[in-house]
Amino acid sequence: MTTVKEQQIIQAQFQERMNQDELLNCMRCGFCLPSCPTYIESGFKETHSPRGRIALMKAVVDGLIEPDEDVERSLELCLGCRACEPVCPSGVKYGHLLEEARDIIQQNKRHSLPVKLVRNAVFKGLFPHQERMRMATGLLGFYQRSGLQTVTRKTGFMKLLPENLATMEKVLPTVPSMKEMKNRPEYLPPHGTQTKRVAFFKGCLMDTMFLESNNSTMKLLQLAGCEIVIPKNQTCCGALHGHSGEKDSAKDLAKRNIQAFEELNVDYIITNAGGCGAFLVDYDHLLEKDADWNERAKAFTEKIKDISEVLYELDFHKKQKLELPYQVVTYQDSCHLRNVMKTASAPRVLLESIKGMEYREMKDADRCCGSAGIYNIVESEMSMQILDSKMEQTKATHATTIVTANPGCLLQMKLGIEREGLSDKVRAIHIVDLLIEASA
Amino acid sequence: MLTSELKQKLIQIVGVENYEDTKATRLVYSYDATPNFQAMPDAVISPRNTKEVSEIVKLCNQHKIPIVPRGSGSNLCGGTCPIEGGVVLLFRHMNRLLEIDEENLTVTVQPGVITLDMIKAVEEKGLFYPPDPSSMKISTIGGNINENSGGLRGLKYGVTRDYVIALEIVLANGDIIRTGGKLAKDVAGYDLTRLFVGSEGTLGVITEATLKLIPIPETKKVMLALYQDIEAAARTVSKIIANKIIPATMEFLDQPTLKVVEDFAQIGLPTNVKAVLLIEQDGAPEVVENDIQRIADICTAESAVSVQIAKSPEEAEALTTARRSALSALARLKPTTILEDATVPRSEIAKMVNGINKIAEKYQLDICTFGHAGDGNLHPTCPTDLRNLEEMERVEEAFAEIFALAIELGGTITGEHGVGVMKAPYLEWKLGREGIAAMQAIKSSLDPTNIMNPGKMFAKESRKRVVVAR
């Protein structure tokens, strides 16, 4: 519950901070409606559409309504997938509006003590610190390896958790050992003739829980002739913070990353997680009002490229022999990779060039899978509804391999496979891991 | 505000989950795609079937509560803006395609079906529903019928009106009537089907429709012609028709539009030409081939500076980019985009476009004109900013003059967007006082309590007629 006093403060800040030109830019044509997963899944409710959310934000600014709990609910239920942006005739930057609105609400909301503690621990205590990320992942590793996992599952402890959290626990990857996580390379030479000099943005979760995918990425870059530098002082991209109304923390992280990469003299900065990449390319917007940093942020964002895009550009799929045993493969877009980084065809071209297997596009592959950062935990009902629709589409292709390009999507697809009881027939895999499999 | 007693009765009809009156919900149904119109309804109701609609209407009639039926709210005349409050009716549950009848070539739908979804479904059966308003990806059939929507293919195939053959309607007193049928011929009484098409929700609530289908054309081809003067482009349009060729679409873009599109899309359009025609023909392959060649010859004879026929679907796609990007390009220029649809007989297109350009100059505005040249339906579009009140005043004056010019040339104030609240003050210019009186007589006999979308179509006060300086 937000108190009347809090609402007044929020309203004042909306008037002060929301970009009014951008709000007015929405001409309410409604072209965004069919692209919005929550509009569709809510049974076509305008309150859960991009046009409706912008209208609500504008109405708060204009003083037509108060930022009451229904307004808040509408903004909370948004996945932030930004599928509405490419289809908008006016080019409204919806993602930026949403982020600002959420930030205002978060900052002025008095959270209950437990929520405050958890938010602090996660956003400030955990993600920005790679050694703690390793610790946390290490704990999970201990849990998986020590037999504790078996015991916990047998005792039925998991039944105490909400259904999707319990299933989530099952689909988490087997994590690497502490030693593996600690000894990470800082430089890797190209295989064969050098084509590009690139820096690798390893990400916090990718370099711990999804370490294998990071290794695959670097190996692919080497195969494509890239010399790779992996600066040690890089940190979490800040996407989770930015999307959850912790903008100041996100800005700090952005500055640290810009500093870590700016002197490296590289052609590109490579990411393999659509969610991180999309936030990284938006650093110049995040720091737009910071005169000292804006130019530096621009130089940084111009270099951001997804792994699929750079492999495609370097003709990796033509030069490298790629082959797999027969299987049907389908691809689930990462929303942020597609809608923000505009990388949609490169991963498909790469997949289609693998010999022996068959690529089948699923219907609505560009629609969000419902993972959306921590959305599948905090909005599990809507998330599972979206996931169920998604699984229908994947099943229609008869694919046994579902490829994704972002860790969140990967876990969500694994969750979907588990929920459908298909884990012995269908697998979900990051595109880099499949490409390594095909290169062997 | 609805009394709590009435609210309870409405909830009894549709169920608590289908009656909403939170501030947030009322706010998001306070607008449609028309700039500068916003008014909150008292409640938003989602009936599940015709019977529920009838019961809601009966109650509202008893209590004199306005009813505004709403599809996706994509109209451009303020048609679904609840300017007098009341109840907004949503068709989000009544959105099923009921039947495709391959023997009678018809499709029967509930009003909430998305136009493009229906088009795709009938095309899977090799059938064709030609009306293609630019908003078809989001608009509903119910909305299309109420606004009598047009589209790009109007010249050859007509508009929504030409495909609606039967309707189920809930009248203002709650009576449920059925008009027409799966019939090519039917003269049993007044043609109520046609009366309700384009009635903008002012006469009753359409709850089901049967639409006529035709076989899908086998193939299509696209070409682009560039002109140094507008008259030559306009002459080409008339010449093509005079040569007894009816293209599927004939789209026109003027120089200001071309410049904006090129700025935005960077597709190598020549911005030094005065007009572009984008022409598409569909049908049997030999016919299409022959027609396109003859059209190309006519373009050249009418001194087109360049004529380009697409050789592949990809090339066709590239040629149509300019037309498809027009709205996006214009919408990005300024926060507010005023998109009108003044329409003239196609023989008057050159005069109309030149007239619009002169009016734009007079009022110091940027007005870009593009549209459906084949049927004279133009879209003079003005990128502006609502907050600039002085400029908004000039915009209003300019458009009043554009409407007056259209009428003077034998045209109309609206070709496909509808009257709604936005153009109501101008309706008398087109119809005359007697015409308005005739329409009002129909309205008051079918809706004596004036609950069906009140405030639309008929203005409290008509605008003073502008005299166009010639």
Automatic annotation (TrEMBL), chain A:
InterPro entries, per the entry: 4Fe4S_Fe-S-bd (IPR017896), 4Fe4S_Fe_S_CS (IPR017900), Cys_rich_dom (IPR004017), Glc_ox_4Fe-4S (IPR012257), Helical_ferredxn (IPR009051)
Keyword Acetylation assigned to the entry: answer is: no
* EC assignment: 1.1.99.14
Q: What does this protein do?
A: Component of a complex that catalyzes the oxidation of glycolate to glyoxylate.
Its name, as the record gives it, is Glycolate oxidase iron-sulfur subunit
Asked whether the keyword Iron-sulfur is assigned, the reply is yes
Superkingdom of this entry's organism?
Answer: Bacteria
Cofactor binding description: Binds 2 [4Fe-4S] clusters.
UniProtKB/TrEMBL annotation, chain B:
Q: Which domain of life is it from?
A: Bacteria
In Swiss-Prot or TrEMBL terms, this protein is called: Glycolate oxidase subunit GlcD
- This protein's species is Mesobacillus maritimus
> Which gene codes for it?
glcD
For activity, the cofactor(s) needed are: FAD
Q: Which Pfam family, an example, fits this chain?
A: FAD-oxidase_C
Q: Which residues form the signal peptide?
A: none
Asked if Iron is a keyword of the record, the answer is: no
Q: Which residues form the FAD-binding PCMH-type domain?
A: 37-216
